[in-house]
């Protein structure tokens, strides 16, 4: 690069520079202490070899033309470099298939440790809401992990974060989960329970979604994905609220179910089963098809958050005892 190519770094000229050039071009005397470095660098003036302290002006149009030519060369080189960038981006088709990485909208977290670490980072940075859906039946967990979860939840609630957690109804009968949820609820978390199955997920600020792995075979059981595609997270959030709106508040689970919440047809089916008739025998006895009986029993199980007809009949027996006492 020539010296002239580098002179563009001196632009823009300051008002004082313009005034100094005017004085030199008109043959005037410069006041002492004037700085002409930028004008010399741009080749607008040169020191007069025969008159110390004086300067020779040059045609500014020639300087402008030379700077324009240099800028156009730089622009041409930049345009040429940019034209090669798409070829670099296309190399991703060779990179992505060989990495446990789902592109720019999700990231695979191969172990439980990685999942917990990323969840911790994202939860700590949460600004608006943390919502979780835990559809599976509860199991005893490491007390240290539970304490960490409680600490994270308390910290979020203290910052004014909305915390909503949805559990399976069976979690209410699990002592460890009951204690954990009780502590969260006491600190201000909103907790509900549902008998309907759903996908396990954690959504933070409507921007981060954590889900189980359903992509890679033979992966660790607790591996998963951190998804930050806007449409995918929004869809998952809508799914969560579908289950949430139909769920029962955690504090209401302690209230005994009322047999009167069932329809007369449902109660008649249960009375027949309680009398010892099989599900196949109940339909003809009360004028319903076997399919209609099965449908009503499924509605009862869903309404009560139970998994089997045996559990329904056990509940029916308890409810009968409460009413007769």
Automatic annotation (TrEMBL):
Signal peptide stretch: none
Membrane-traversing stretches: none
InterPro entries, A to Z: Sig_transdc_resp-reg_C-effctor, TrmB-like, Tscrpt_reg_LuxR_C, WH-like_DNA-bd_sf
Coiled coil start-end: none
Domain of life: Bacteria
Domain HTH luxR-type: 259-316
Designated name of the protein: HTH luxR-type domain-containing protein
């Amino acid at each position: 690069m020539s010296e002239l190519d580098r002179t563009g770094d001196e632009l823009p000229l300051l008002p004082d520079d313009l005034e100094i050039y005017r004085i030199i071009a008109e043959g005037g005397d410069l006041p002492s202490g004037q700085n002409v470095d930028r004008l010399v660098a741009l080749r607008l003036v040169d020191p007069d070899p025969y008159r110390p302290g004086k300067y020779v002006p040059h045609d500014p149009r020639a300087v402008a033309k030379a700077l324009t030519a240099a800028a156009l060369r730089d622009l041409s080189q930049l345009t040429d470099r940019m034209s090669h960038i798409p070829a670099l981006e296309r190399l991703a088709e060779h990179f992505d298939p060989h990495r446990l990485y789902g592109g720019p909208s999700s990231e695979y977290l191969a172990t439980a440790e990685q999942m917990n670490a990323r969840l911790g980072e994202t939860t700590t940075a949460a600004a608006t809401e943390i919502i979780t859906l835990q559809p599976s039946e509860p199991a005893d967990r490491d007390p240290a992990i539970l304490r960490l979860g409680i600490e994270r939840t308390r910290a979020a609630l203290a910052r004014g974060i909305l915390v909503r957690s949805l559990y399976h109804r069976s979690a209410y009968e699990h002592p460890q989960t009951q204690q954990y949820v009780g502590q969260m609820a006491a600190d201000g978390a909103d907790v509900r329970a549902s008998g309907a199955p759903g996908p396990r997920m954690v959504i933070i600020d409507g921007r981060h979604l954590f889900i189980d792995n359903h992509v890679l075979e033979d992966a660790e059981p607790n591996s998963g994905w951190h998804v930050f595609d806007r449409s995918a997270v929004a869809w998952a959030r809508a799914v969560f609220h579908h289950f949430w709106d139909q769920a029962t508040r955690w504090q209401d689970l302690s209230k005994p179910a009322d047999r009167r919440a069932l329809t007369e047809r449902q109660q008649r089916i249960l009375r027949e089963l309680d009398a010892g008739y099989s599900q196949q025998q109940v339909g003809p006895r009360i004028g319903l098809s076997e399919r209609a009986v099965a449908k009503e029993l499924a509605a009862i199980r869903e309404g009560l958050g139970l998994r089997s007809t045996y559990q329904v009949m056990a509940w029916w027996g308890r409810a009968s005892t409460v009413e007769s006492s």
